[in-house]
Fold these 4 entries.
Entry 1:
Amino acid sequence: MSDYILLILGIIFMIIGIIGCLVPVLPGPPLSFLGIIFLQLTRFGQFTTATLVVFGSIAAVVTVFDYIIPVWGTKRFGGSKYGTKGATVGLIVGFFIGPLGIILGPLIGAFVGEMIFKDDINYAFKAGFGSLLVFLTGIGLKLAASLAMTFYFIKELIA
């Protein structure tokens, strides 16, 4: 019975981990890694220690990069913290609109953030677009890590 409870928790954490890649307040890869750990605690999980260390390291590195890359990338494109914060708010609002909102929300949010910071439309567009690219890169890294862990979770479950 406890195997199935842990399995259900693992599945829930894998799903929340993928959602967390898109929602800024949830740490996607670490939650996906917890899903792997829950599976490992059942009779279904047979991961090696090395595999668990690799998954844990990937989750940690991607999470750290998720905090470093936006700051570095925004500065690289000449943007400010306003653009990064605007992109985050835009993503949250866009999440409720749907797939198009998830793409356009961060762009519009970054643009508005940069317009608040510096009332120059050319600057705001360039910096906002840069903030969006960096933001999407972070989402892509998190999704790649969480989807890879989900793949191995499912592979281990059905093997």
Entry 2:
Amino acid sequence: MTKEEIITEINKAKNAHVLWFANAMALSTGTDPGDSSVPKRHTECAFGKWYYGTGQENNYLESYKAIEGIHKELHNQYNEIFKQFKKLDSEGFFEDITLRDSAEQLNFNITIDKLKDISLELLEKLTDLQAELK
């Protein structure tokens, strides 16, 4: 695979991550995006399939190696958000406006913010990988 093709694949991986992240953020508003919201192992999402599939030809690069831990952490954080969402949703949390400023809402927002930070870090590492390949 040429460097240009690899960079194109990384762009596709970034796009897959952004779409996944949008679905994750839907949970923060009380919207269940359906099957796309079900947690997956870090090796099973579209990005993970690239990373552990054709992306492996880049495993000699430090910027490539730096991605794995962040990606695993992202999935762990999302699993926590998904558990919280299901619990809160079953309790009618998202329909009860009186709970908007509750400790539960604060904790949920903190978890969402952590996911945002990890997501940005992952995208930065992918950009680093692209720069290293150029």
Entry 3:
Amino acid sequence: MEQTAQRTDVYTLLQYTLDLYIASAWQLMGFAPDPLTGRIQVALDEAQIAIDCADFLAGKLKPYLEPEVQREYERRLRDLKLNYLTKQDESRMEA
């Protein structure tokens, strides 16, 4: 049986990349272990960059997403940002 290669459109790639940035931000805030080491690490400066990149990609994707998918990304980013602020406050109190 012959397999034909299918082209992956840029919107699918952007969604994949957006999901990676979101997962990375959770890891960098210490809410999930690094999949390679299994260790929890906190790097809030890197988490902020991942969140900013995810926010940017979500904005670029917004016109091309179904409304329910769009709302889900908005919810996920809102949760991410709120948790980041909480972690940032905790970090300030510890310093």
Entry 4:
Amino acid sequence: MEFLFAAGESAPSAGIAGFIPILAIVAIFYLLIWRPQSKQRKAHVEQLKALRKGDSVLTRGGIYGKIAGFQGKENQKVIVDVGGNIKLTVARTYIAGLADSAPENPEGN
């Protein structure tokens, strides 16, 4: 029975030392996940604000084209000319980025 009492005596202290591993995990998540993702999101928003007529863009659907114009309230709709006299209306938020900065550009092959 003595071993049961000994196990109860060596219980971890309930002070701030118990929270240090949790704080370390939160700090690691912040530095590795939240902060870089926030920076990437801010850069994408700035890139969307800077879109101009004539820019080559890539949509989230994988369509390459050039911006032919803007429509709607606060220019939230982008008219994308994909060639062959075909123009698509796409929400500005569905523009993935500029085609020049896209990692895979099939036109460049």
